[in-house]
Write a structure and sequence with these properties.
Blueprint (H helix, E strand, L loop, with lengths): L1 H9 L14 H27 L12 E3 L56 H6 L2 H4 L12 E3 L4 E2 L16 E4 L30 E4 L28 H8 L28 E4 L2 E4 L24 E4 L17 H6 L5 H4 E6 L5 E4 L12 E7 L1 H17 L21 E7 L1 E3 L8 E3 L3 E3 L10 E4 L5 E6 L2 E5 L17 E5 L12 E7 L1 H11 L3 E3 L6 E7 L1 E7 L2 E4 L9 E6 L7 E3 L6 E6 L1 E3 L2 H10 E6 L1 E6 L1 E7 L11 E2 L2 E5 L9 E4 L7 E2 L3 E8 L7 E6 L1 E5 L2 E6 L3 E4 L10 E3 L9 E3 L7 E5 L1 E3 L9 E6 L1 E17 L5 E10 L1 E2 L10 E3 L8 E3 L9 E2 L4 E10 L1 E10 L4 E11 L9 H9 L2 E6 L15 E9 L1 E4 L27 H4 E12 L4 E13 L2 E4 L5 E3 L3 E2 L5 E4 L2 E2 L6 E4 L2 E2 L2 E5 L6 E8 ...
Parallel strand pairs: 1-2, 4-5, 7-12, 13-21, 15-22, 23-29, 24-30, 31-37, 39-45, 40-46, 46-52, 53-56, 58-68, 69-72, 74-83, 84-87, 89-98, 99-102, 104-113, 114-117, 118-124
Antiparallel strand pairs: 2-3, 6-8, 9-10, 9-11, 11-12, 14-16, 16-17, 17-18, 19-20, 20-22, 23-25, 26-28, 27-30, 31-33, 32-35, 34-36, 36-38, 39-41, 42-44, 43-46, 46-47, 48-49, 49-51, 50-52, 53-54, 55-56, 57-60, 58-59, 59-62, 60-61, 63-67, 64-66, 65-68, 69-70, 71-72, 73-76, 74-75, 76-77, 78-82, 79-81, ...
Length: 2011
C-alpha cells in the first residue's frame, strides 16, 4: 500500500480498475491488529482492577461474523434504550483512574469470557445475514451473539455489554472513551450503528453521546448500562497503530459497525466534513456499475463527469498529495480494493420509478439497466476512508498534518450519497454506431406502393440490435423490447414522396420516391427498441425507393363472327403480366361479310393510354377477324281465320336469326300463282319472298298454311215447365252465331200435353246453302208438364213399432194459370189437422213451393201422440222405491202391462203386498200429455228363531216356498249360544310348563229375528243361564316357584263377563333373577365419558357383549384406542347383586393437511373406511389456498376493450390440522412463500396508436394481505385528434387545383365527401380520373400521421367527327347549357375532303357497255376539344385509319358475249388528300357459250342424270325436259321444280355454262285408319305397273287402344258396383315412299294429341260405406305405350255414431252423455241398464228410457241418433222420535232403592225426508199423541215395612227440548216386628247406547234409561272378534231402516229368558221379570207393546179387507 501511494506522487495522471488483489497480507494484518486491540483491552482491565468496579454478567451479546477463517477482535457496544459515552483523562499511566468519579452508578468490569458465551447454533445465521443486519444489535434480553468465522469456528473476543431495562429498546449507542497519559497515545474508540431497509423496523433511533473530561453523562437510575472496554497491558504508539493498520485490513459490512478513528491531542481544532462533487452519467450498453472506477478521478484531476470526495480544513484548504493534487478519498478507497461492493449500499430507481435496493456481495457488472443508482458509502466505507487518511498521514507527513483534516462523519446519509445515471442511448440517422439505417427498397409497378423498407438499428459497436424486415422484427438483441416475429411497421408508418416531375397519375407511378419514417413509424420503432434506446428527435430517417414498370402481354384474339349489321372487332386478352389499372381495350372493326387481318389494340381514353405507356412495358400479338353471313329463317305464319265473307291472307316473318337490315318479306301462294289472299273456306299453301339484297344473309324459307274455317252457329232449345191443363205445349228454338244476317234452316220436334218430360231438339237442313257455311251445334231442351196432388194420412205406431194408418184423405194444390206471370209455377196447399194427431215432419214435397219438375204428391202425415204412465214398486219397510216401470202408448190405446207377475216375484222374495192401485185391465192412455202414476206398496216379512228353534242357513224359511228366502248365516244354534272362558297358563320363559292351567267358564244364549227380504238378522242381548246379562271370573293368585319371580304375581278377577267377550288365555311367566355390569368408554382427549353400556344377564351366564364393535364404531368416528380392560371372551355374571365395571379409553386422532395434500369435504379420510370420518368443510384445497388479484382493465371511452387486461395474482397458503372426532380445524397463518404479505408490481399502461391513456403507470403495492379484496383498476384511452388532406390535381396541366384540410378524432370518419367538389369541376369541363378518397369518408385510423388523398382530374376532351360534328357557340353538353361551347372549326365541312377515280366501259363502237365505276376516297379528320381551355386539336386527314387513300383494283364487268380489253384496272395504295381526280376507259368484244341440265332427286340428294348443251351466244337450244320427266313420274317420282325454259334455253350468259335443274322428289302417299292400303296392290290404280302398297299399311297397323278399368269392391271382395272402363284410341298415318317402298309412320295420336286422357272418375256413393278413394284421378298424359290399367276401389263399412244422454228431470241438468260408435247396419252392445242401476244406487229412479232394449242399430248412415234417459230423485221419508222420560225413584231416607222405578216416556215424532241424490234433508214439525204434553201425577207405592213421605209426584209438562224428569218419593221405615228382616234393595236396569243391559247397584241414584238424542230406527248387531269360534257375516249385520207403519221406532227385539228353567221368585227374579216385560230401546212396558201389536194387526186386517173390496169393485 505504501509503495502504491508513493507512486501516486510520481504519476501525472492515473486511472485504475478495481482489480481484486491477493490476500496474502490478510493473516499478518489481522495478527498485528489483534495484538494491538488485545493490549488496549488489557489496559482497560488494569483500569477496572484499579477502580474495583465490576461488570454485571448479562445474557445479551452481539454477534459479529467475518467472511474470513482467521479470528479477529472487535469492540462491541450493546445497544440499549439509553447509552453513555464516557471520556476519562488520566495523567499517570501507572495509576488507576477511578471511573466512579465520573459515574457513580457505573460498574465496570472486564469479562474476558463474554465472547465465549455465544451459542454455536446461531453461527450460520450470523454468517449468512448481511453485515448491516448482523451489525444491528437486537434489544431482546435473551439474545446472544458470537464472533464467528465462515468455517464454523468460534472466536473469542471481549464483549462490551450493557443491560437494558426495556426489551423493546431499539436505539444504538455510540460510545467514545478517551484515556490520556504522558507517555501514551489516546485510543479513541467510536462505535456506530446503521440500519438498512431490512433491519427490524423498530430499530430507528441512533444516539451518540460524548462526555468531555470532568463531565458526566446522565445514566438512568433504574439500571445503568455497563460499558466494558478491554485495553492492552501497555499503550500502543501512534506509529505502531498506523503500522498495524497499514496492512490494509479490509473493513467490510461483515465486520462490526463501530470503527476506530485517531484523534490528536489538540481536540479543539476545527474539523470539516467530506465534500462531494460531480455526477456520473454512463450510456446504456457501454457500462455498468462495475465501471464506476473509470469515473472516479485520481488525485491529479477533477473531470466534470467524475465523483470525488475531497477534504477541506476550516480555512477552505484542500488536503493535497505530494504533487499538489486534491486527495480523492473515494479514489484511494476504491483503488485495488477487493471489496468495493461492501463499502456502498445501492438504491436503483428504474425509468418507471420502481425502486430496488442492493447491498452485500452484489455483482456490480449486473447493474447495467437505465435508471438512477443512488450509491451511499456505508459504515464500512467510512471506516475505509478513515484508514486511508491515516495511511496518508503515515507516509505523506511532509505535506500536511492530518490533524487538521479529521472528518466528522455526519449522520446525514446524503452527505455520503452520490448518483450514477445510466441513460438511454440516443439513436441518430447515421450508418455508424448508434444509428438507424433504412435500406433502399424497390418494387414493380402494382398500382399501389407496397415496398416496405428494411430498418436496422446499430449500437455503439455497430452491431445490429434491431432489424425490421417486411414490417416484422427479424433480429432483436437483449436490451430491446421487441420480440422476433412481432409485427411492428406497416406502409402507414412511412411517408412516400414522388420524385418525378410529371404527374403521378395513380399515386404509385414508376419512378423514384423519397421514403421517410413518419411519426407513427418512429413511435412503432421506439416501442420496439424500448426504453434503453431513444430515437433522436432531431434526426430524419429517410431513404429512396424505386418503382419499375410492370410487363404486360396483350393478345388480340382471332375470331370468326357472324354478320350483325354493326362494326365488329375481337377481344384483347392480357396473356402475360397483371393489369393493376382498369383499361378499356378495343380493336379495329369492319361491318360486311369478309376477312380482316392485322387487328391491333387501341385505347380510347387518353388517361388510360398514358398510364399504360408510363407504367407498363407492353408486347402485342395481332389477330384476324372473319365475318360470315348471318342465318335467317323466314317462316310463313299458319293462319286460321273463321269464315266471315271477307278476304284473308297471312304474313312472312323472320323467326330465327336477326334481320339486322330490316329486310321486308311477304307471303305468296306456294303454287306460283302469286296470290296473296283467299276468301272462300279452304286450305292454301303459302311461301315467302323478298326483293331486297341478301348478300349478308343465308336465308331459309319455311312454308305456311292459310286455312279458312266455317263459322260456328248454335241452335238452342230452352228448357220449359208448364202446369198440366190438357193442351199441347211446344218449345221454340233460338239461333246464335250467324254472320251477315244469314238465316239457318232447321226443323224442331213436336211437344206434348200429358204430365211428364220430353227432350225437344232441332235438325238442320244439310242441303241448305247457308247452313254449309257453318258448323251448327244443336243444344236440346226439355219440355216438362207437371202437376201437384195432395194427400192427408192419419197414423199411429203400434206396440211392434209399426205404423198403422187410421185414415186418409186427398186434396189439390192451388197455382196460377198465366204462363207469363212470374209466380206461374208457384203452388200452395192447405193442412187438415185432426184432434189427437200431431203433424209429423215433412220428408217429401214441400207443402208450398215452386214446380221444378213433373211435380208429385204433397203428403200431410199426422201421428197419434205418445202418452206415458209410471208404475212404482214401493218398499214400505225401507221406505224406498224398489223399481219403476215407465209405460208408453199411443193416445187412446190400452197398455198390456200387468203388475201381478212382478208382485208375485216380490212376494216370493220375502215381501208382503200392502196395496196395488194399477188397473187390473191395464192403463188406458186417455189423458193427453198427462203422465199417469200408479204405486204397488210392499212390506218385508220377519221370522224369529231361538236356541230351542234355530234356523238352518241356506235352507228355505218357508218349506212350502223352496225358491223363497233362506235362513241367512247367523241363525243356527251355534250363533245363538256362546261360552266365554278364561285360561291361565303358568310357563317358564323358555315356554316350558311351570304349573297346571287354571280354567273358568260362563255360558250365554240369545234369540234372532230375520228380515226375509234382505236377510238382515237382529239379535237380542246375550243372557247367562241365570238370565243375567253378565257372568263373573274369580281372581287367582300365581303359585310360587323357588328361584324364580312370577309375572304377574296374580290374575285379577272380572265381575262383568258378557256374551260378546273373548275367551282370553292369560300367561304367567317365571323369570330367573338378572345380574348387571357396565362398560364405560372414556375420551382421554376431552376427559369426557363417551357412553356407558349397561350389560345384564342371568347369574352364572356369560355375556355375549363385546367391546370390539363399539371400539370399531369409535375408531370409525376418528378415535384411537388407548386401552380396553373388558374381557375378550365376555363378562361372566358371577357376582350376584353387584354391578361389575369395565373401562375402554380412547383419544382423538389428528390429521395434518396442506395445500399440496388437501382434503375433499364429504369424502372419507380413510378410503378403506368409507363410513368413517370425512373431511370437514374448510379442508379443501380452496380453503388452504387464497388468491388476491389485481386486474387492470384498458378500455376506450365507450367502455369497449382497448387492450388485454393486466392481471397479477398473489397466492396465499396455509395448513390445517383436523380433529377427526369433532372436525375441529386448526389453521396456520396465511403465507405467500414465507411472508405474510405479497406484492403487486407497478404496471405501465400499453401504448395504443391514436389513443392517450389517463394513467400511464399503475403503481405497485408492497403490502398485499390475504384479506385484501381483489382490485379492479380501469385505464381509459381517449382518441387523439388526427389530420388528413384532400388534394385536387389537374393531371392535364400538372397543377394543384385545391387542397382541403380535414381533422377528426382517431378512428372516426370524416363527414367530408369529394362528390360535390368533383361535380363542380366536371361542370366546368373536367373529367374525374381517380378519386382515392373513400366514398364513405376518410377514417382517421393512423396515429400522428396526416393521411393524404388525391382527386385526380383531367381536362375533359370531346372529339367531334364528320359524323358527329359540332356547332360553334353551342354548349358541348346540352344538359350543361352554361358549360363549355364548341369552338370554330368543328363543323362537318371542316372535317371532310374527297378525291375520285372514274372508269368508263365502252363497246368498240363507243357505245356505253355499262355504268361507270367511280371510286371516291373520303378523307376525314377529328377535332379534339379541350373543354377546360376551349381549343380544338385536329387529327391528320385519314381515309379510315390511314393517312392515304386507296383505289382498289377494279375487275372489268363481265358482259355476256363480250371480252374486255382490260380485265381489271389496277388500284393505287397511296392516294393523298392533295391528289387530283383521274379517268380510265375499258373496251368490250363478243364470245361463245355452254349450258347443262341436271335431274336431281331431292329426296335422297342424289343427281339422277346430267344433259350437256352447247350453242352460240344469243342462240336458242332445241333440248326439252318433258319426256325425261314423264319417265321418272311413272316410276314413282313427282316433279318438284323444272327451271329449264319450256321453249328451250337461250345462250345469253358469256363464258358461263348455264345450269338448269329439274328437281324431282319421291312421291309420298299417306294411308290413314280411315283410308288404309292393301299390301301388294298398286297405289295408283291408273298405273298398275307402278309402285305397290307395302306391308304395314292396313287399318290394323294404324289403330291402337289403351284402357283403364276401375273395379268397385267391398272389403270382402264382393262387387260393389259396375266397373268403370275408359278406352283411348290412338291412330297414326303411314307415309309410303313410292320410289323406295318404305313406310314412315306419324306418332300415335288421340285426336290431335300425342297423349290421351283418362278423366277423373268420382267413386259412386254407397250408403253406409266409404270408398278408400273418393275419386280416381285422371291422367292427362296417357301414351300409346301405356299398358291397360286396373284400379280397385274398396268400400269400407262406415263407423256410425249415436249418443245416450242421461238427464236429471228433477234439476233439468244433464248427468252424462255416452257416445256410441258402430259399423253401419250393426247393433250396439251398449245397454243403459247398468248405468240406470248405478244412478238408482245413487238415489235416482228411472222416468223414461228411449234407448232400445236390444241396443241401438246404426242404420242411418251419417245420422247421429240421440237417445234420452230421464231420471228423477228418490225421496225417502223416515220418522224421527224424541223421547222425554220421567223416572220416579222409590227410596228410603238413606237412599236405599225400595221399589222398581216408575219410568214413563213421552215420544215426539216428525218426518224426515232425505233426497237420496243430494242428501238434502227437510223436516216436518214435531208432534205427539198427548195433546197436553204432560206427565200425569204418579201415586206412591205401598211398600211393606215403609210408608211414603208424600202421596205422589207432581204433574210435569214437557216439550221436545225438555230434559228428562227425575223425581224421588222418600219412604221412612216402619217399626220392625220381631223376627222380620229388611228387604233386599231392588236392582234396576240401565239401557246404554249399545243396548247392552247391565245390572248395577246404585245406592244413591236410581238407574236411568239412556236414549240417543235422535233415536234412529236402527238395530245394531255386535260382530264377534277373530278368536270367537263362530262369526256373523258382516254383510248380514248392516243397519236396517224400519218403516214407521210396520212397527214402532226404536224397538229392538229382546231375548227372553228360557222358560224351561224354574226361577226362584226372589227380588232379583222380580227385577228380571220386570226387565223382560220392558222394551230395551223405549223402555215401554211389554203389555203396551202387545196392545200396540194387536191394534196394528187389526188395522192391517181392515186395510186388506177394504183393498179387496175396492179391487173387486174395480174389476
Amino acid at each position: 500500500m505504501r509503495n502504491r501511494l508513493n507512486r501516486l506522487g510520481l504519476e501525472s495522471k492515473s486511472h485504475y480498475k478495481l482489480y481484486k488483489s491477493g490476500r496474502r497480507w490478510v493473516a499478518a494484518s489481522i495478527t498485528v491488529f489483534s495484538v494491538g486491540i488485545g493490549l488496549t483491552f488489557n489496559q482497560v482491565e488494569q483500569v477496572k482492577a484499579a477502580t474495583g468496579t465490576g461488570v454485571d454478567t448479562a445474557d445479551n451479546s452481539a454477534s459479529v461474523s467475518s467472511d474470513m477463517a482467521e479470528p479477529s477482535n472487535a469492540v462491541v457496544l450493546k445497544s440499549a434504550s439509553t447509552a453513555t459515552a464516557t471520556k476519562t483523562a488520566t495523567q499517570d499511566a501507572k495509576a488507576a483512574t477511578d471511573v466512579t468519579a465520573a459515574t457513580q452508578d457505573t460498574k465496570a468490569t472486564t469479562d474476558s469470557t463474554g465472547a465465549t458465551s455465544a451459542s454455536s447454533n446461531r453461527q450460520s445465521t450470523a454468517a449468512t445475514k448481511p453485515a448491516a443486519e448482523v451489525g444491528t444489535a437486537s434489544s431482546s434480553a435473551d439474545s446472544s451473539a458470537s464472533i464467528s468465522s465462515t468455517d464454523g469456528s468460534s472466536a473469542s473476543a471481549p464483549s462490551v455489554t450493557s443491560k437494558s431495562t426495556d426489551k423493546e429498546a431499539t436505539s444504538a449507542s455510540a460510545t467514545k472513551t478517551a484515556t490520556t497519559s504522558a507517555d501514551t497515545d489516546v485510543l479513541n474508540t467510536e462505535t456506530t450503528s446503521s440500519s438498512v431497509a431490512n433491519d427490524l423496523t423498530d430499530a430507528t433511533t441512533a444516539s451518540q453521546t460524548r462526555t468531555e473530561t470532568g463531565k458526566t453523562a446522565s445514566i438512568p437510575t433504574a439500571e445503568a448500562p455497563t460499558i466494558t472496554t478491554a485495553v492492552t497491558s501497555r499503550a500502543l504508539p501512534l506509529t505502531g497503530a498506523l503500522a498495524s493498520r497499514s496492512a490494509n485490513t479490509p473493513v467490510t459490512k461483515s465486520t462490526v459497525q463501530a470503527v476506530s478513528a485517531i484523534t490528536s491531542e489538540a481536540e479543539t481544532k476545527p474539523t470539516v466534513s467530506l465534500v462531494t462533487t460531480g455526477t456520473v452519467s454512463m450510456d446504456y450498453g457501454e457500462a455498468s456499475l462495475a465501471d464506476l472506477e473509470s469515473h472516479i478521478s485520481s488525485p491529479d484531476e477533477t473531470p466534470a463527469n467524475d465523483v470525488a470526495y475531497y477534504i477541506q480544513d476550516a480555512a477552505g484548504n484542500y488536503l493535497e498529495d505530494v504533487n499538489g493534487n486534491k486527495v480523492n478519498l473515494l479514489y484511494a478507497l476504491f483503488l485495488d480494493s477487493a471489496d468495493v461492493n461492501d463499502y456502498v449500499d445501492v438504491v436503483y430507481t428504474d425509468e418507471h420509478g420502481q425502486v430496488t435496493k442492493y447491498s452485500g456481495d452484489t455483482d456490480f457488472s449486473t447493474l447495467d439497466q437505465i435508471g438512477s443508482y443512488s450509491v451511499t458509502i456505508n459504515a464500512a466505507g467510512k471506516a475505509g476512508m478513515s484508514r486511508v487518511m491515516q495511511d496518508y498521514n503515515a507516509y505523506d507527513t511532509s505535506t500536511s498534518d492530518l490533524d487538521d483534516f479529521v472528518p466528522t462523519f455526519s449522520t446525514g446519509a446524503s452527505d455520503y450519497t452520490f448518483t450514477i445515471n445510466i441513460v438511454p442511448v440516443k439513436i441518430t440517422a447515421t450508418t455508424g454506431k448508434n444509428g438507424l439505417i433504412i435500406l433502399r427498397p424497390s418494387q414493380l409497378y402494382t398500382g399501389s406502393l407496397t415496398m416496405l423498407p428494411v430498418v436496422t438499428v446499430k449500437n455503439a459497436t455497430k452491431q445490429n440490435i434491431l432489424q425490421i424486415s417486411n414490417g416484422e422484427i427479424g433480429d432483436a438483441k437483449p436490451g430491446v423490447a421487441g420480440k422476433v416475429g412481432q409485427r411492428v411497421l406497416t406502409l402507414a408508418d412511412f411517408t412516400y414522396t414522388y420524385q418525378g416531375t410529371e404527374t403521378n397519375l395513380t399515386g404509385a407511378d414508376t419512378g423514384k420516391y423519397a421514403i421517410t419514417l413518419n411519426d407513427a413509424g418512429r413511435k412503432a420503432v421506439q416501442a420496439a427498441l424500448g426504453s434503453n434506446y431513444i430515437l433522436d428527435d432531431a434526426a430524419v430517417f429517410t431513404t429512396t425507393g424505386a418503382v419499375q414498370a410492370a410487363g404486360l402481354g396483350l393478345t388480340i384474339a382471332n375470331d370468326t363472327v357472324i354478320y350483325n349489321g354493326k362494326p365488329q372487332g375481337t377481344t384483347v386478352a392480357i396473356t402475360a403480366g397483371t393489369a393493376y389499372d382498369h383499361f378499356d381495350f378495343t380493336t379495329t372493326t369492319d361491318t360486311n361479310v369478309g376477312t380482316y387481318d392485322d387487328l391491333t389494340y387501341a385505347l380510347a381514353d387518353p388517361t388510360q393510354a398514358a398510364i399504360l405507356a408510363k407504367n407498363y412495358t407492353v408486347t402485342t400479338t395481332d389477330g384476324t377477324l372473319v365475318i360470315t353471313p348471318a342465318d335467317l329463317t323466314v317462316t310463313v305464319k299458319d293462319d286460321n281465320p273463321v269464315y266471315d265473307g271477307r278476304a284473308h291472307g297471312t304474313t312472312a316473318t323472320v323467326t330465327s336469326g336477326t334481320n339486322y337490315d330490316q329486310l321486308a318479306f311477304t307471303a305468296v301462294a306456294a303454287d306460283g300463282s302469286g296470290a296473296t289472299t283467299y276468301t272462300t273456306v279452304g286450305t292454301y299453301a303459302m311461301t315467302g319472298t323478298t326483293a331486297a339484297d341478301t348478300s349478308n344473309y343465308k336465308i331459309s324459307y319455311v312454308n305456311g298454311t292459310l286455312t279458312i274455317d266455317p263459322a260456328k252457329a248454335t241452335i238452342t232449345i230452352p228448357n220449359k215447365i208448364y202446369w198440366s191443363d190438357g193442351t199441347q205445349k211446344n218449345l221454340a228454338a233460338v239461333v246464335t252465331g250467324t254472320v251477315n244476317g244469314e238465316t239457318l234452316k232447321y226443323r224442331v220436334t213436336n211437344g206434348m200435353s200429358a204430365v211428364g218430360t220430353k227432350t225437344i231438339t232441332a235438325t238442320p237442313d244439310a242441303d241448305d246453302s247457308v247452313n254449309k257455311n257453318y258448323t251448327i251445334s244443336v243444344i236440346p231442351g226439355t219440355l216438362t208438364i207437371g202437376d201437384i196432388a195432395v194427400k192427408y194420412l192419419y197414423e199411429h205406431v203400434d206396440a211392434n213399432g209399426e205404423t198403422q194408418v187410421d185414415a186418409s184423405e186427398t186434396g189439390t194444390a192451388t197455382h196460377a194459370t198465366d204462363t207469363t206471370a212470374t209466380d206461374y209455377l208457384t203452388y200452395t196447399t192447405a193442412a187438415k189437422p185432426k184432434t189427437g194427431y200431431a203433424l209429423a215432419p215433412n220428408t217429401g214435397l214441400a207443402y208450398n213451393g215452386t214446380l221444378t219438375d213433373q211435380g208429385g204428391t204433397v203428403t200431410y202425415r199426422y201421428l197419434a201422440k205418445t202418452e206415458t204412465a209410471i208404475v212404482t214398486y214401493f218398499d214400505q219397510t225401507d221406505n224406498k222405491v224398489i223399481k219403476t216401470d215407465p209405460l208408453h202408448g199411443a193416445y187412446g190405446t190400452t197398455d198390456a202391462y200387468r203388475t201381478a207377475d212382478t208382485i208375485a216375484a216380490y212376494e216370493n222374495a220375502g215381501y208382503d203386498l200392502v196395496s196395488d192401485d194399477y188397473p187390473t185391465a191395464g192403463v188406458v192412455y186417455d189423458q193427453d200429455d198427462i203422465v199417469q202414476k200408479y204405486q204397488v206398496t210392499l212390506v218385508h216379512k220377519f221370522v224369529t228363531r231361538t236356541p230351542d228353534n234355530p234356523g238352518t242357513p241356506g235352507e228355505p224359511i218357508d218349506p212350502d216356498n223352496p225358491n223363497g228366502p233362506t235362513y241367512p248365516v247367523g241363525t243356527d244354534f251355534e250363533d245363538l249360544t256362546e261360552q266365554v272362558s278364561q285360561t291361565i297358563q303358568y310357563l317358564y320363559k323358555d315356554g316350558r310348563t311351570a304349573k297346571p292351567n287354571n280354567v273358568q267358564a260362563v255360558n250365554f244364549s240369545r234369540n234372532v229375528t230375520v228380515d226375509e227380504v234382505n236377510g238382515t238378522v237382529v239379535y237380542t242381548d246375550w243372557l247367562t243361564d241365570d238370565g243375567t246379562m253378565t257372568g263373573r271370573f274369580e281372581a287367582v293368585d300365581s303359585p310360587s316357584i323357588t328361584g324364580y319371580t312370577a309375572d304377574p304375581t296374580s290374575v285379577a278377577g272380572r265381575d262383568t263377563v258378557s256374551g260378546t267377550d273373548l275367551s282370553p288365555d292369560v300367561q304367567v311367566y317365571y323369570q330367573a333373577n338378572p345380574e348387571k355390569a357396565t362398560v364405560t368408554y372414556e375420551d382421554t382427549t376431552t376427559g369426557a365419558v363417551l357412553t356407558t353400556d349397561p350389560i345384564t344377564g342371568d347369574y352364572q351366564t356369560v355375556s355375549n357383549y363385546r367391546t370390539a364393535d363399539r371400539i370399531a364404531q369409535y375408531l370409525n368416528m376418528g378415535y384411537e384406542l388407548v386401552s380396553d380392560d373388558y374381557p375378550t371372551s365376555g363378562a361372566v355374571f358371577d357376582k350376584d347383586g353387584s354391578t361389575q365395571a369395565y373401562t375402554v379409553k380412547l383419544q382423538h386422532k389428528l390429521l395434518p393437511l396442506t395445500p399440496e395434500n388437501p382434503g375433499t369435504p364429504g369424502e372419507p379420510i380413510d378410503p378403506d373406511n368409507p363410513n368413517g370420518p370425512t373431511y370437514p368443510a374448510g379442508t379443501a384445497v380452496q380453503d388452504l389456498i387464497k388468491q388476491v388479484g389485481q386486474t387492470i382493465h384498458y378500455q376506450y371511452q365507450d367502455k369497449s376493450t382497448a387492450a388485454d387486461a393486466n392481471m397479477q395474482t398473489i397466492t396465499f397458503k396455509r395448513s390445517v390440522t383436523v380433529d377427526e372426532v369433532n372436525n375441529k380445524l386448526t389453521y396456520t397463518d396465511w403465507l405467500t412463500g414465507t411472508a405474510t404479505t405479497g406484492r403487486y408490481m407497478p404496471v405501465d399502461s400499453p401504448e395504443i396508436k391514436g389513443y392517450v391513456a389517463d394513467s400511464t403507470r399503475i403503481a405497485g403495492n408492497d403490502e398485499v394481505h390475504n384479506a385484501d379484496a381483489d382490485t379492479n383498476i380501469v385505464v381509459t384511452y381517449q382518441a387523439k385528434p388526427e389530420n388528413a388532406t384532400v388534394t385536387y390535381v389537374d393531371v392535364t396541366t400538372g397543377k394543384t387545383l385545391a387542397i382541403k384540410s380535414l381533422t377528426g378524432d382517431y378512428q372516426t370518419t370524416s363527414s367530408y365527401r369529394t362528390a360535390e367538389t368533383i361535380a363542380s369541376y366536371v361542370k366546368n369541363g373536367y373529367q374525374l380520373v381517380r378519386d382515392n378518397y373513400p366514398t364513405s369518408g376518410a377514417v382517421f385510423d393512423v396515429d400522428n400521421f396526416a393521411k393524404t388523398y388525391t382527386v385526380t382530374l383531367k381536362h375533359k376532351l370531346v372529339t367531334v367527327t364528320p359524323e358527329n360534328p359540332g356547332t360553334p357557340g353551342q354548349p358541348i353538353d346540352p344538359d350543361n347549357p352554361d358549360g363549355p361551347k364548341y369552338p370554330v372549326g368543328t363543323t362537318a365541312q371542316d372535317l371532310t375532303k374527297q378525291v375520285s377515280q372514274t372508269i368508263k366501259y365502252r363497246y368498240q363502237n363507243g357505245a356505253s357497255a355499262g355504268t361507270d365505276n367511280v371510286q371516291l376516297i373520303t378523307f376525314n379528320r377529328d377535332a379534339t376539344i379541350d373543354e377546360v381551355e376551349p381549343t380544338a386539336v385536329y387529327t391528320d386527314w385519314l381515309n379510315g385509319t390511314s393517312a392515304t387513300g386507296r383505289y382498289t383494283t377494279v375487275m372489268s364487268p363481265v358482259i355476256t358475249g363480250y371480252t374486255a380489253d382490260k380485265t381489271q384496272v389496277a388500284g393505287r395504295d397511296s392516294v393523298a388528300n392533295t391528289d387530283s381526280d383521274t379517268q380510265v376507259v375499258v373496251t368490250y368484244a363478243a364470245k361463245p357459250e355452254k349450258a347443262t341440265v341436271t335431274y336431281v332427286d331431292v329426296t335422297t340428294g342424289k343427281t339422277l342424270v346430267t344433259a350437256n348443251l352447247t350453242g352460240d351466244y344469243r342462240t336458242q337450244s332445241n333440248y326439252r325436259t318433258a319426256e325425261t320427266i314423264a319417265g321418272y313420274v311413272k316410276n314413282g317420282y313427282e316433279l318438284v321444280r323444272d327451271n329449264y325454259p319450256v321453249s328451250g334455253m337461250l345462250f345469253d350468259v358469256d363464258d358461263f355454262a348455264k345450269t338448269y335443274t329439274v328437281t324431282l322428289k319421291h312421291k309420298l302417299v299417306t294411308v290413314t285408319p280411315g283410308n288404309p292400303g292393301t299390301p301388294g296392290q298398286p297405289i295408283d290404280p291408273d298405273n298398275p305397273d307402278g309402285p305397290k302398297y307395302p306391308v304395314g299399311t292396313t287399318a290394323q297397323d294404324l289403330t291402337k287402344q289403351v284402357s283403364q278399368t276401375i273395379k268397385y269392391r267391398y272389403q270382402n271382395g264382393a262387387s260393389a258396383g259396375t266397373d268403370s272402363v275408359q278406352l283411348i284410341t290412338f291412330n297414326r298415318d303411314a307415309t309410303i315412299d313410292e320410289v323406295e317402298p318404305t313406310v314412315v309412320y306419324t306418332d300415335w295420336l288421340d285426336g290431335t294429341s300425342a297423349t290421351g286422357r283418362y278423366t277423373t272418375v268420382t267413386s259412386p256413393v254407397i250408403i253406409g260405406y266409404t270408398a278408400d278413394r273418393a275419386r280416381v284421378t285422371g291422367n292427362d298424359a296417357v301414351t300409346s305405350a301405356a299398358q291397360p290399367t286396373n284400379i280397385i276401389v274398396t268400400y269400407a263399412i262406415n263407423a256410425e255414431k249415436a249418443t245416450v244422454t242421461y238427464v236429471d228431470v228433477t234439476t233439468d241438468k244433464t248427468l252424462a252423455t255416452v257416445s256410441l260408435t258402430g259399423d253401419y247396419q250393426t247393433s250396439s252392445d251398449y245397454r243403459t241398464a247398468n248405468t240406470i242401476a248405478d244412478y238408482s244406487n245413487q238415489g235416482y229412479v228411472l222416468v223414461r228410457d228411449s234407448y232400445p232394449v236390444s241396443g241401438a242399430i246404426f242404420n242411418d248412415d251419417g245420422v247421429v241418433h240421440s237417445y234420452l234417459v230421464q231420471l228423477a230423485h228418490v225421496t225417502t221419508a223416515t220418522t224421527e222420535t224424541k223421547t222425554i222420560t220421567q223416572t220416579v225413584h222409590y227410596q228410603s231416607t238413606t237412599g236405599t232403592q225400595l221399589h222398581d222405578d216408575t219410568v214413563r216416556a213421552m215420544t215426539f215424532t216428525r218426518t224426515k225426508r232425505v233426497d237420496q241424490v243430494t242428501g238434502d234433508v227437510t223436516y216436518s214439525n214435531w208432534s205427539t199423541n198427548q195433546a197436553d204434553h204432560t206427565f200425569e201425577r204418579v201415586a206412591a207405592f205401598s211398600i211393606p215395612g215403609y210408608h211414603a213421605v208424600v202421596t205422589g209426584t207432581q204433574a210435569v209438562m214437557v216439550t221436545p227440548a225438555s230434559v228428562d224428569d227425575v223425581q224421588t218419593i222418600r219412604y221412612v221405615t216402619d217399626r220392625l216386628s220381631t223376627g222380620e228382616t229388611p228387604k233386599t234393595p231392588v236392582k234396576t236396569v240401565t239401557v246404554n247406547k249399545s243396548d247392552k243391559i247391565k245390572t248395577t247397584d246404585t245406592p244413591d241414584k236410581v238407574a236411568t234409561v239412556k236414549t240417543p238424542d235422535k233415536a234412529q230406527t236402527v238395530a245394531t248387531t255386535t260382530a264377534k272378534q277373530a278368536s270367537v269360534k263362530r262369526s256373523v257375516d258382516l254383510k248380514q249385520a248392516q243397519a236396517v231402516e224400519q218403516p214407521a207403519q210396520t212397527r214402532p221406532a226404536n224397538v229392538k227385539t229382546v231375548k227372553l229368558a228360557k222358560t224351561t228353567k224354574s226361577v226362584k221368585p226372589t227380588a232379583a227374579h222380580q227385577s228380571a221379570t220386570h226387565k223382560q216385560a220392558t222394551l230395551p230401546q223405549t223402555n215401554d212396558n211389554r203389555q203396551a207393546s202387545v196392545a200396540a201389536e194387536l191394534l196394528g194387526l187389526t188395522a192391517a186386517t181392515l186395510l186388506v179387507g177394504v183393498s179387496a173390496i175396492l179391487k173387486k169393485r174395480h174389476n
